[in-house]
Design a protein that fits this description.
Blueprint lengths: L1 H5 L3 H6 L4 H5 L4 H6 L13 E7 L2 E6 L4 E4 L7 E2 L8 E6 L5 E5 L3 E5 L7 E4 L1 H15 L6 H17 L5 E6 L5 E5 L4 E4 L7 E2 L12 E7 L2 E6 L4 E4 L6 E2 L8 E6 L5 E5 L4 E4 L7 E2 L8 E6 L5 E5 L4 E4 L5 E4 L8 E4 L5 E5 L2 E5 L9
Antiparallel strand pairs: 1-2, 2-3, 3-4, 5-6, 6-7, 7-8, 9-10, 10-11, 11-12, 13-14, 14-15, 15-16, 17-18, 18-19, 19-20, 21-22, 22-23, 23-24, 25-26, 26-27
Helix pairs in contact: 5-6
Length: 362
Amino acid sequence: MNRLRQVGGLLLVLALPISPACFAAGQAAGDVLESPAMRVSNPERAVFIDLARAGDRLVAVGERGLVLLSDDNGQHWRQAQVPVSVGLTAVQFVDAQQGWAVGHAGVILASRDGGETWQLQLDGRRAAQLELDAARHELPASADAEAAEARVQTAGRMVEEGADKPFLALAFTDAQHGLVVGAYGLAFRTEDGGATWRSVIGAIDNPMGLHLYAVAQRGERWFLAGEQGYLARSPDGEHFQQLESPYSGTLFTLASRADGALLIGGLKGHAFLLAPGADSAEALPVLAPVSFSDAIRLADDRVLLANQAGGLFTSATGTIAPAAKPQGRPVSGVIQAADGSLVVAGFTGLSRLALPAVSASE
């Protein structure tokens, strides 16, 4: 597990609040998978990683299975019922009622009531067995027998290691179809809203098993980004081919712009634009040597990027521009509320910000 712990930057700390060392110290995966999230006082001050909109409602996810809901654009929060107490790393809703969250121990949670309650759909133990079954099933027809056999052996080790690997990102196109990805190249798809999941690790060109931090859809095409500059594209969300890397450092976040370009944010403030149909990404100026942690599309079609120092930047043309003074505290996730304001998540909890004005450079 050393490589996972060595991926640099504060984002790793934010995204992976429960490390494998926790399990070694006595917090077994079974314990956190079977223990509901505890009720806490002032939960909005806890560590949160990601946010989503469920209609006009805001949903925040974070440490130890905490899920908070706000129906007044982030002014007040209340805690939801969650059946596990693992750190949650990403959340998405496809409408006001149906959403998913992913996190440590290979957890995938689903909600059908706007985030009020959650059900466990998959955990790392079952995910490992699904990958082992898929690797064995695909072995006889593989064009590269050596690589296919190595995949079977890797999957076998996953089963032995148990639920110790996190999911880090997800993308659902509707209430039925979704893709979740994570550490060591984990990748699983559903076509029935999560009633069943299947491993698609073998359909992704990722022979090193690099961590996958972001997944995005742009039209019919899908994109993945991860450590060591990993970038891949798929015409259908099923089979991904690796693209020429624009950078040797980790890529953490993806967002589609209104002009069809894909904005990519990475380590130490490096950002890139992948134009529609292009096979290589163009580097943008580094405005601050601080890693980007999130990117979202605003209602006015600008893309907003947040970094680990609380800096906010926007992009609507061929560049990026500062959008506000740095918050002075780490930001791991950002969302635009129904009233147009921004809500940010991080080590110090949840807070509201005014929407940045459009700069002259945009």
